[in-house]
Specification:
Number of strands of chain A: 5
Radius of gyration of chain A: 13 Å
Number of helices of chain B: 1
Largest interface: A-B, 27 and 21 residues
Shape of chain A: globular
Strand content of chain A: 35-45%
Oligomer: heterodimer
């Protein structure tokens, strides 16, 4: 991973901070927030050259426990079938 | 400025940002490490507001901090599909409770907020 360390990236995921990063030529955007009693985490993905209209997040998770936010993100295979640990070497963080 | 909670906890931290300019009297910050991602600190040091620009020098983020250096208010300009699903960059606000980052769901700017802060919005269409 370039732009920040993996440990800092995961800390930001746990806190719900916005992170914008590039993986395999696509832009990914992570953020977390609190809504209706749940901790929500979402990941959006688009082609930077020609972003199409939003049709839904590639990842969305709601949990009652803050600790679940990172746990479920770590397990999500949302990076062309890879999870964050498998994909991290090819990730470039732009904003975060 | 260090990481989250370090200023408030009184722990000395290494400076990781530098001032690279001013927009209407507000410091524009960049990370000292030029290979690092663009960003702004979660806590302030000597100022109560900072601006981040993108690599083109256009507005990306504005942050305000309270007297205890905690982040309280943020304006971002980037794709936010919850506000505009066309995937055009859109101005939006995040508000924070003292030392609590969990309540940060975005919302559009009010007309009053836009008029107050528009002087910072270089490159915003």
């Amino acid at each position: 991973m370039t732009g920040m360390s993996l440990s800092e990236f995961l800390e930001k995921v746990a806190c719900g901070d916005e992170i914008e990063f590039i993986f395999h030529g696509k832009t990914y955007f992570y953020q977390g927030y609190f809504e209706n009693g749940s901790y929500v985490s979402v990941v959006d993905c688009w082609d930077e050259e020609k972003p199409d209209n939003f049709a839904g997040y590639i990842y969305e998770h709601h949990s009652k426990e803050l600790s679940d936010r990172l746990k479920f993100f770590e397990e999500a295979n949302i990076f062309d079938g890879k999870n964050i640990y498998e994909a991290e070497k090819e990730i470039k963080v732009i904003y975060g | 400025m260090g990481g989250r909670g370090t200023f408030a906890a009184g722990r000395p931290t290494a400076y990781t940002y530098e001032t690279v300019g001013f927009i209407e009297g507000v410091k524009v910050l960049q990370k000292l490490d030029k290979t690092a991602s663009f960003g702004l600190p979660e806590e302030s040091h000597s100022s109560n507001a900072y601006i981040m620009v993108n690599k083109s020098g256009n507005f990306r983020m504005y942050r305000e901090y309270d007297e205890n250096h905690f982040l309280r208010f943020e304006i971002g300009y980037h794709i936010e599909p919850a506000i505009d699903p066309s995937r055009k960059p859109v101005l939006h606000v995040h508000e924070y409770q003292p030392n609590n980052f969990k309540d940060r769901k975005s919302r559009p700017l009010t007309a009053e907020e836009y008029n107050k802060y528009k002087k910072f919005f270089k490159g915003v269409v």
